[in-house]
Specification:
Mean pLDDT: 74
Low-confidence stretches: 1-38, 268-272, 334-343, 667-697
Largest sheet: 5 strands, antiparallel
Protein name: Mechanosensitive ion channel
Keywords: Cell membrane, Membrane, Signal, Transmembrane, Transmembrane helix
Strand content: 5-15%
Organism: Rhizobium oryzicola
Membrane topology: Multi-pass membrane protein
Subcellular location: Cell membrane
Radius of gyration: 43 Å
Order of helices and strands: HHHHHHHHHHHHHHHEEEEEEHHEEHEE
Distance between the termini: 100 Å
Number of strands: 10
Structural class: alpha+beta
């Protein structure tokens, strides 16, 4: 549905533009006697007069062109039928036979290499690019041999006077046609999808090759044959030739664009594509119509500038896909006419070489576009630097700034891409999980990337100002004074930043570690900024602590952690038996694959002290930081079960009284005392387990 709508809008817009041109031209002719008071009005009237004059010249040329073409054709027929014409034609055929013969002789040896290239089984994109380049070199070598042989043969003949232009014109047309075909065939490779250098629809490759060759041939005819007609005293015929070639070129390009859009719209992937918010398919036909219309009303200068802008914009729009196509993973097992991309563009952009190549290519396209604009304006490239024109000098400075921007961007890409790739390899950091050995990298790499971006940006701004002739010394001096004033006025800020630099340089804490600061703030390091550190408390609140207020930092997530807890048992139990039972529990925990990887030393126990009626056994183990809490819970569970199996109870929470008269024990009122469990003071879990203590009296 978009394609008929685009055609309708294009036809309506073209008709409206033509009507407006006629209306404005008539209005300008009617207002010749009434000068405008504003400069904009005078410029508009002047532009309308120029457009009217240009269209009048084109109309006159089209009217007078048939007669001049007839005259030129008659003169050419008479010249070719003369003796000099026959001699020139004979020499020309001999020269062509020499060139074609030498090239044929070259291909008797080079054809085998071409067959090897065509039959090679391609397994990677790099191999495909190398083979396509070798194929291009073989074809270019044959074309160079043809050109050199023709050029050398021309010097052996004495050409009749007045016929040299016709000979050189025909040879230039042949060479232009062959060079255009060679470049288009190498880049688009119709029927040889594995050698294709641009990601284009396989069904449209042959169409675009034919379009490029035809448009290149029309441009060559307009550029080469036009001056010959002017020398033959046929200026209207030359102008008519320009009109004919420009019209045919615009029609061919427009037809190719519409055909390409139709093929894409009817493809299989259309069902899964998201409809665009703006009909992008309409832009290319409008651009072509705008360039052709501007050429009609304003001449080649304005149309060349507009075409340069459009071409540079289109290339920049598709350059990312074109460049990344070289590094994409393609399916070379399919038919030669098709190419399947197995790698997403975002995945290719994460590599360094494609990103740098894209930056250089964008800069090169901009430079070529600016150079084409300068040539269109008529400014000699050799005299641009010494020109006194303000606009020209601004363009020169703009070249320098774009060069600085390229160097800065390449340096930024060289720093950013490896950092992003390394962060992606480390994976997402879980700030509430256990710290891993990569926590330091996850802490420092984002800050390094941000610092590099700030430094590169400041250097680019200062260098750009210096390139445009702005003295940056006062700016640097002013920045120094401002920094000094900032240091005096914001001592706390400077203290926080400097303290943070030393905290990070000395590796005091990392993202994901549990720390306690000197101001009684504790929590897991969730993120680190330029001035503060964010600590997530175990109860949920997030504390933002400036580095200058941290003070002494206690890191509970480094290297290892020792956990100790007490087991109260009756006083009559055998200490050695209890020690062996707990030792076996520790050995069984070390044999458990899920628990052993969290423990660094097995669970051990010893008699700690004897209280009235109670023996206190101290248990100890060493584990990775943050794992001691779940290991202690598991140890409690296993010790309880092992003591129960051995018939050993925990100490009762009652007092036992002995009656002196009868000598029999008697239960007294219960008295409970807490035996403190010794553990890390940084424990973010539930309070330690309490056990009753029995006293015997």
């Amino acid at each position: 549905m978009i394609r008929p709508l685009a055609r309708s809008i294009g036809m309506i817009g073209l008709a409206a533009m033509t009507a407006n041109c006629v209306m404005f031209a008539n209005a300008a002719l009617a207002q010749q006697a009434a000068p405008q008071s504003h400069s904009e009005g005078r410029l508009l009237i002047h532009a309308l007069h120029s457009a009217n004059y240009r269209l009048g010249q084109l109309g006159t040329a089209l009217v007078n062109a048939p007669a001049e073409f007839a005259t030129v054709w008659q003169n050419a027929s008479q010249a070719s039928a003369s003796t000099d014409g026959i001699v020139t034609l004979t020499y020309w055929l001999i020269v062509m036979l020499i060139g074609c013969g030498l090239e044929w002789y070259y291909w008797t040896y080079a054809a085998s290499s071409m067959r090897v290239i065509d039959e090679t089984l391609i397994q990677s994109a790099a191999q495909a690019f190398r083979l396509a380049l070798r194929r291009f070199v073989l074809l270019a070598a044959g074309l160079i041999l043809f050109t050199v042989s023709i050029s050398g043969s021309l010097t052996f003949f004495e050409w009749p006077a007045g016929y040299e232009n016709a000979v050189f014109t025909s040879l230039l047309l042949i060479l232009s046609l062959r060079v255009t075909w060679l470049l288009a065939d190498t880049v688009l490779a119709p029927g040889r999808g594995r050698f294709r250098l641009i990601d284009v629809e396989p069904r449209c490759a042959a169409l675009w090759v034919a379009t490029v060759v035809a448009v290149g041939m029309l441009l060559a005819i307009s550029t080469i044959v036009g001056p010959v007609l002017e020398q033959a005293q046929a200026p209207d015929a030359a102008e008519a030739l320009h009109i004919l070639t420009a019209s045919l070129g615009a029609i061919l390009v427009l037809a190719a664009v519409l055909r390409h859009q139709y093929v894409i719209a009817t493809g299989d992937e259309t069902e899964h594509r998201k409809p665009p918010k703006f009909p992008v398919e309409l832009l290319l036909p409008l651009m072509i119509a705008a360039v052709f219309g501007l050429w009609l009303v304003a001449g080649s200068l304005a149309s060349t500038l507009l075409a340069s802008v459009f071409i540079v914009s289109i290339i920049q729009w598709h350059l990312r896909r074109v460049i990344f196509f070289f590094w994409s993973e393609r399916d070379f097992t399919r038919s030669p006419g098709g190419v399947t991309l197995h790698e997403d563009v975002s995945a290719i952009a994460s590599r360094l070489a494609p990103s740098v190549a894209l930056s250089v290519a964008r800069y090169g396209v901009c430079v070529v576009g600016i150079a084409a604009a300068l040539l269109a304006v008529g400014v000699p490239i050799s005299e641009v630097e010494n020109s006194q024109n303000a606009v020209t000098r601004f363009v020169v400075h703009l070249f320098g700034v774009t060069g600085l921007a390229l160097v800065t961007h390449v340096a930024w890409v060289a720093v950013r891409v490896p950092i992003d790739q390394r962060i992606r390899e480390l994976g997402p950091s879980d700030t509430h999980g256990r710290p891993n050995p990569n926590a330091r990298l996850m802490t420092l790499l984002p800050m390094l990337r941000m610092a590099a971006g700030v430094v590169f940006g400041l250097m680019l701004v200062l260098s750009a100002l210096w390139t445009f002739g702005v003295d940056v010394t006062p700016l640097l001096a002013g920045a120094g004074v401002f920094g000094l004033a900032l240091g005096f006025g914001a001592q706390a800020l400077v203290r926080d930043i400097i303290s943070g630099i030393f905290y990070l340089a000395e590796d005091v804490f990392r993202v994901g570690e549990y720390i306690e600061s000197g101001n009684n703030t504790k929590g897991t390091v969730e993120r680190i900024t330029l001035r503060t550190v964010a600590l997530r408390h175990q109860n949920g609140p997030l504390h933002f602590v400036p580095y200058g207020s941290l003070g002494s930092v206690r890191n509970n997530s480094r290297d290892w952690s020792i956990d100790k807890f007490n087991i109260p048992l009756p006083v009559y139990v055998d200490s050695e038996t209890v020690r062996k039972i707990i030792k076996k529990v520790g050995e069984s925990m070390m044999e458990d694959p899920e628990i052993s990887k969290l423990m660094l030393e097995p669970l051990k126990a010893k008699l700690y002290r004897i209280d009235p009626g109670v023996k206190i056994f101290r248990c100890k183990f060493r584990s990775a930081p943050g794992n001691q809490f779940e290991i202690r819970t598991e140890a409690y569970r296993r010790i309880e079960q092992s003591l129960k199996d051995a018939g050993i109870p925990f100490a009762a929470g009652t007092q036992v009284l002995i009656n002196e008269a009868t000598g029999l024990p008697q239960l007294a009122a219960p008295q409970r005392t807490a035996i403190a469990t010794q553990s890390a003071p940084s424990e973010p879990q539930a309070p330690p387990m309490q056990q009753p203590q029995a006293q015997l009296s």
